[in-house]
Specification:
binds 5-amino-5-deoxy-1-O-phosphono-D-mannitol; 7-stranded antiparallel beta sheet; alpha/beta; 19 helices; 8-stranded antiparallel beta sheet
Length: 606
């Protein structure tokens, strides 16, 4: 989490940093700050506050903005509450720094360096500033080299030394830093998004390498002081954002973009009516020879894995494990060279997914990452990458990233079925016929968004809600419930409806909203009778049902008909309906849909 940025060049650094921090705000938005270093006067100016980047911009409004070198930060609090004091940058003596990550031994360091009296904030970051200042005797390299030997945890540190004008220093362990330059100067940031349209080439700063950002060049040194040759990557994708268009929130825009994003994700991978993953470089051999498939992912991405699991087990007859990446290595997973690990992530930076992937590869597994952000850490760490073509996803609540992940996973499973001799040409054609109709079926739901808005109005006063379904419906609802709870703050649980009677049904009271999806032919009758059970206890049931299912004469608080597809593909229309339901509840409650409280788009701390 936390976005960090540094700029050294010709332009006013304050404006440059504020613009970049806005682009990074999705990494954390509880406080923001910047520090500038005037190369002529040697004066350091520090501005920071709890709140958004727009609040920081207000504070900086009357500043003269003549400095051209500085660092900035947008925070997602880990150590220490949300306050002006805890906001970054932190200064101790000549050292001014911003940090992304967690310093696990910061309490020990306070004791070791006897810092207690001089610290003003509760952050682990200020401890690093103080340690660095203790070690600083005029040589930034020496101070950084010694300091990192004391630090345990993950960190991306970007540092100004007050007596070293016109140079920014950086060093990292795990937490990413990218750097770039152009005619206007040099820049570094936590991710490529902040480099904006200005960067054509960027480098990923290697771990434990000291980076110096000068006005017109970037220099790298290893910890022994030897120069390291930077490796630049050309940016061959669009890093600009085209705003919210006519939508009040990014989330609505991103929900509506799904049919196009799905088509774009499929396009290059269907050649002459057949699945072709050659543009991803995924060799058929690993799809053919693997004996186990295992997904590591978090949140929404993990839910995409659950949908893929149903497909792998039904189409390939293979066991597939889907694990929370954050739990993966503590479960002593059975992984070997016959295991294919799928790491799924929108950002490609989720630290738990990255660490789980590294763990699996160290055990010999082959890996394919399904990623939206090109060149991200997980993409670089994996053997092969299938990029989703969702475009930038800005809203914290993931929508188009999820459904494009599903498309990539369906294509992968389809190809596995083909190379393993399970699909003949006709079966592949039939499978693809369903898949290519997903954008159109989603569009049909999106065209009825006003009907879903009406249904959402009935949920505004709810404190708790349940979502019930079986099999694939349950997997779909796990994601639906995550969407609703994260942006509406209604406590929502998805429950396997057969499991409800084993305890949870005690929580159903008069008018508790219960959302049920019924999309699977073989489960329909059982699902409908589970719905009766909650209705008998007073629940108010919102039913999302495949349009060709017969509902007999039962009554529901609301019914939304989902356009019919083959059962395995019903996740597409059902997800669109659930996303819109969550969106409208949040919007009608007057909440900040795109930036829900306590959350960040990119989770880079364990
Ligand atoms: O970037 P990732 O896909 O790795 O992020 C994983 C989760 O943090 C993410 O899916 C999260 O659950 C969603 N933003 C929720 O809508």
């Amino acid at each position: 989490m936390c976005g960090i940025v540094g700029y050294n060049g010709k332009n006013s650094v304050t404006d440059q940093l504020l613009d970049s921090l806005e682009l990074l705000e999705y990494r954390g938005y509880d406080s923001a700050g910047l520090a500038t270093l005037n190369g002529t006067t040697g004066k350091v100016k520090l501005r920071k506050c709890a709140g958004r980047v727009r609040d920081l911009r207000r504070i900086c409004q009357s500043d003269k903005k003549i400095s051209t070198c500085g660092i900035g930060h947008t925070r997602w609090a880990t150590h220490g509450g949300v306050s002006d004091l805890n906001a970054h940058p932190h200064r101790n003596g000549d050292v001014i720094l911003v940090h992304n990550g967690i310093i696990e031994n910061y309490e020990e360091l306070k004791d070791h360096f006897m810092l207690h009296k001089e610290l003003k904030s509760q952050t682990d970051t200020e401890v690093v500033a103080a340690v660095l200042n203790r070690l600083y005797k005029g040589d930034p390299h020496e101070a950084l080299r010694k300091a990192v030997q004391y630090l345990r945890g993950t960190f991306a540190l970007v540092v100004l030394f007050a007596d070293q004008p016109d140079t920014i220093y950086a060093i990292r362990n795990v937490s990413p830093i990218v750097a770039a330059y152009n005619d206007n100067g040099t820049m570094l940031a936590s991710d490529v998004a902040a480099l904006g349209a200005t960067a054509e080439k960027y480098m990923v700063v290697p771990e434990y390498v000291i980076t110096e950002l000068h006005k017109n060049e970037i220099k790298l040194f290893d910890l022994e002081g030897k120069p390291v040759e930077p490796e630049f990557i050309t940016i061959d994708w669009d890093t600009t954002r085209d705003g919210k268009g006519n939508y009040p929130f990014y989330m609505e825009k991103e929900i509506m973009e799904q049919p196009d994003a799905l088509k774009a994700t499929m396009e290059q991978r269907i050649v002459d009516g057949k699945i072709d993953l050659s543009s991803d470089g995924v060799p058929d051999e690993i799809l053919k020879s693997c004996e186990r498939v295992c997904v590591v992912a978090c949140g929404t991405a993990m839910h995409a894995g659950l949908v893929a699991k149903a497909l792998v087990q039904s189409k390939l007859g293979m066991h597939m494990a889907v694990e929370y990446a954050s739990e993966f290595m503590y479960e002593d997973p059975v992984i070997d060279e016959k295991t294919l690990v799928l790491a799924i992530s929108q950002s490609g930076e989720t630290i738990d997914t990255l660490e789980a992937l590294k763990y699996a590869r160290a055990k010999g597994a082959k890996s394919i990452a399904v990623i939206n952000v090109k060149g991200s850490s997980i993409a670089r760490e994996s053997d092969y990458v299938m990029y989703t073509v969702a475009g930038p996803e800005i809203a914290v609540a993931s929508t188009k990233a999820y459904t494009t992940q599903l498309i990539a996973l369906f294509l992968l499973v389809g190809r596995m079925a083909k190379v393993r001799g399970i699909f003949d040409d006709a079966a592949e054609k039939e499978f693809l016929g369903h898949l290519v109709s997903a954008p159109e079926k989603m569009q049909q739901v999106l065209d009825q968004k006003h009907d879903i808005h009406k249904i959402a109005r009935g949920m505004l006063d709810a404190k708790d809600a349940f979502m019930i379904g079986r099999g694939l419906d349950y997997s779909i609802l796990l994601e639906g419930a995550l969407k609703l709870k994260e942006i509406s703050y209604i406590h929502t649980e998805a429950y396997a409806s057969g499991e409800l009677k084993h305890g949870t049904i005690a929580l159903i009271t008069e008018n508790t909203p219960v959302v049920a999806t019924v999309t699977q032919s073989r489960l329909k009758d059982k699902e409908l009778s589970n719905i009766r059970e909650v209705q008998s206890r007073g629940a108010s049931v919102i039913l999302l049902v495949k349009e060709d299912f017969d509902l007999a004469d039962a009554e529901y608080a609301d019914v939304f008909m989902l356009p019919a597809m083959a059962d395995e593909f019903m996740v597409f229309p059902a997800s669109a309906a659930l996303q819109l339901l969550a969106y409208y509840v949040s919007m009608d409650k007057g909440l900040d849909v795109d930036k829900p409280r306590n959350l960040a788009k990119v989770v880079t701390v364990e």
